[in-house]
Amino acid sequence: MDSSELYHIKQQFTLGAYKSLVDLTLPDPSSPDYTPTLIYQARAHIALGAPAAAEALVPSDTENVALKSVAALARFVAADAEEARDAALEELRDLSVEIEGEDAEATPWEKGTVRVLAGTAFARAGEIEEALETLGAANDTQNLEAVAYTVQVYLSINRPDLARKEFERAKRWAEDDLLLELIEASIGLVTGKDGYSDAHAFYTEQLANPSLTSPHLLTARGVARLLRGEVSAAQSDLEEAQSQLGGKPDAETLAAQTVAAGLGAAKSTDADQLFSQLSSEYPNHPLVTDYQQKADLFDELAAKFTVPALATASA
């Protein structure tokens, strides 16, 4: 069973309170909470776009497979060159194999962490089948965090039916857990279940916690409000999220602000400016790539279209 301190850290990570985690003081290295806390802190750095800070936390001489995996994920995220990305992915593949050996010196939690971090990297690299296999999608895994990431992968490839199956399976063995509620909210946000009310209610309930500061949750509720047609309330959430991020929106907040500007009463130039910023700062964001694909398809079809000659009146 987790200590109360580690339980709180896990909840903060689940709800996207990353800034609180990176400011934590690590426990003594002899404490059983040391490695899990360090890993959650490193993952928070990665989520905030600071993979170098995450890698710097991990002792270079560590033999712990979970610590090795979070360092490898940090290198993958930080890599600009394809060679460096491939090297990080290969290291994560090796670690995934290592934890399957009968003589693997790793706890169940450490093994689960390796699978989640490796699966995360594979999904980000576009290796969807490898990500699902690593996360244990076909093996009815009883690691709730692996289930959560499996659900996200399925939602990312427009398979909410498979995401729902994973969730229903998890409900049979998982205790009433905050992460289970978050999984359900994510599925509801994509499928529109109950008019997005369940997802909206979950985010609102968590944001009522006075000890929690999470721009991630604010953005999520802003998206839910956009889907419910509550544009003004959504914009308020997104502005607050940007404020909590130090005035510079992250990719998900900026993308939501772009959509909100397009739906709101503001000038269309506002949406254009936001989309230009999103394209420049986050060129691989799904909103940007989807728009570009549709623009390319339009140009392709337009090039094939022949404008008929104007009809002339007969004498």
TrEMBL record:
The UniProt entry, under InterPro entries, shows: Coatomer_esu (IPR006822), TPR-like_helical_dom_sf (IPR011990)
Q: Which UniProt keywords apply?
A: Coiled coil, Cytoplasm, Cytoplasmic vesicle, ER-Golgi transport, Golgi apparatus, Membrane, Protein transport, Transport
- State the coiled-coil residue ranges: 78-105
Cellular component GO terms held in the UniProt record: COPI vesicle coat; Golgi membrane
Signal peptide location in the record? none
Where does the protein end up?
Answer: Cytoplasmic vesicle, COPI-coated vesicle membrane; Golgi apparatus membrane
Q: Does the keyword Lipid biosynthesis apply?
A: no
Q: Which GO terms describe its molecular function?
A: structural molecule activity
Q: What's the protein's topology in the membrane?
A: Peripheral membrane protein
Which GO BP terms, alphabetically?
Answer: endoplasmic reticulum to Golgi vesicle-mediated transport; intra-Golgi vesicle-mediated transport; protein transport; retrograde vesicle-mediated transport, Golgi to endoplasmic reticulum
Coarsely, its chief localization is membrane
Q: Which family does it belong to?
A: Belongs to the COPE family.
Functional description taken from the UniProt entry? The coatomer is a cytosolic protein complex that binds to dilysine motifs and reversibly associates with Golgi non-clathrin-coated vesicles, which further mediate biosynthetic protein transport from the ER, via the Golgi up to the trans Golgi network. The coatomer complex is required for budding from Golgi membranes, and is essential for the retrograde Golgi-to-ER transport of dilysine-tagged proteins.
Q: What is this protein called?
A: Coatomer subunit epsilon
Organism of derivation: Lentinus tigrinus ALCF2SS1-6
